[in-house]
Amino acid sequence: MRKVVKLLALSLAMLVLAAPAFAGKLESIKAAGVLKAGVKDSQVPFGYVDEKTSKIVGFEIDLMQALADKLGVKLDVKPVTSATRIPMLTQGDIDIIAATMTHKKEREDQIDFSITYFQTGQKLLVKKDGGVKTVADLAGKKVGSAKGSTSEQNVKKAQPECTVVSFETYPEAFLALKQGKVQAVTTDESILLGLKNSDEKSGDYEIVGEYISPEPYGLGMVENDSDFRDFVNLTLMELWETGKFQTMYTKWFGKDTPNYIPLDWKLELWP
Questions:
Q1: Which residues lie across from 260 on neighbouring strands?
Q2: Which residue numbers delimit the Solute-binding protein family 3/N-terminal domain (predicted)?
Q3: Which of 101, 180, 215, 219 has the fewest CB atoms within 10 Å, measured from its CB?
Q4: How does pLDDT run across 242-263, given as a tens digit for each residue?
Q5: How far apart are CA 83 and CA 97, in angstroms?
Q6: Contact 184, 141 (CB under 8 A)
Q7: With contact defined as beta carbons under 8 Å apart, do 207 and 124 qualify?
C-alpha cells in the first residue's frame, strides 16, 4: 500500500511539473500578468519612438494595448526587426508579433497568423529627380529593403536585373537613398509614406510605380494554439464591430494626419 501511495505521489508531482509545458499561451500570459508583444520601433506610424515621451507608440501598439486590456494584463512591447521577429516568437521571447508582417503562405510553416488587420501593397520610394518611376527603371540599379522582409524577394522577382541591398531597418535604407547609395527603397506603401513624411525635405521624394505585390498584414502567433488564435481574431472583430478599430485607424491614418490612407477595405468578420 505504501508503495502505491508513493507511486501516486510521484505521478502527481510529475503532472504538476509538466503542467506549464502544456499550458496554452492564454493561460501563460494571464499567469505572468503581461502580454509581450514584438513591435517595430522605427516604423511610423505603426510603431516608433515618440521623441517627447521616449515610448514606443503607433497603430500596432494601440492594437496590442486593446488585446492586453481584454486579457486584463499589462502590455510589454519589445522591439523587433523583420529578421528577428519570427525567431523571437518561436524562442518564446515574445507572445505575439505586431510588426507590419505580411501573411505569406510560406510563413505558415513557421507560425500561425491572425485574420488580416491591415491591407497595403509594395511600391517604390525614390528621389523626384532620380530617374526611377517604375520597377522597369530599376534595371542595373540598386534598391534598398530590409533583411528578412518579403519586399526583398518580391522586387527581385519583378526586376531580376536590379541589385537588392538589405538593411536592418527601413530608416537605414531610406538614409542610403538620401546618400545616393541606392536609387530606390522598396517596401509596403504604408511604410514608405511614413518614411517620406518623417523627413524634413519630404517634398524631394515620391512614391511611384504600380503595386509590386499585395501585402496583407497578420499578427503572428506560435503554431497550434487555437485558443489564443481565436481570442486574437475575436478581439479584432469585436474592435471592428464596436468602431474602436476605426477610431484607432483614424488616429494614425486619418485625414488629419500626415500619413493619410483611406480605409477602403473591411475586416474579415465571421458570422
A1: none
A2: 34-256
A3: 180
A4: 999 999 999 999 999 999 999 9
A5: 12
A6: yes
A7: yes
Residue 33, phi then psi, degrees to nearest 5: 75, 20
C-alpha triplet 23, 25, 27: angle, nearest 5°: 60
Which grid cell is 169? 531597418
- Residue (of 62, 46, 148) closest to 106 by Cα position: 148
Considering only CA atoms, which of 150, 148, 143, 145 is closest in space to residue 81? 148
Measured CA to CA, the distance from residue 195 to residue 203 in angstroms comes to 12
CA atoms within 13 A on the CB side of 215: 23
- pLDDT tens track for 111-133: 999 999 999 999 999 999 999 99
| 114, 233 contact by CB (below 8 A) | yes
Q: Which three cell numbers stand for residue 139?
A: 534595371
For the cut 90, the answer to whether the pLDDT of residue 1 exceeds it is: no
79 HSE (CA, 13 A, CB side): 10
All structural domains of the chain: 31-119+216-253 (3.40.190.10), 120-215 (3.40.190.10)
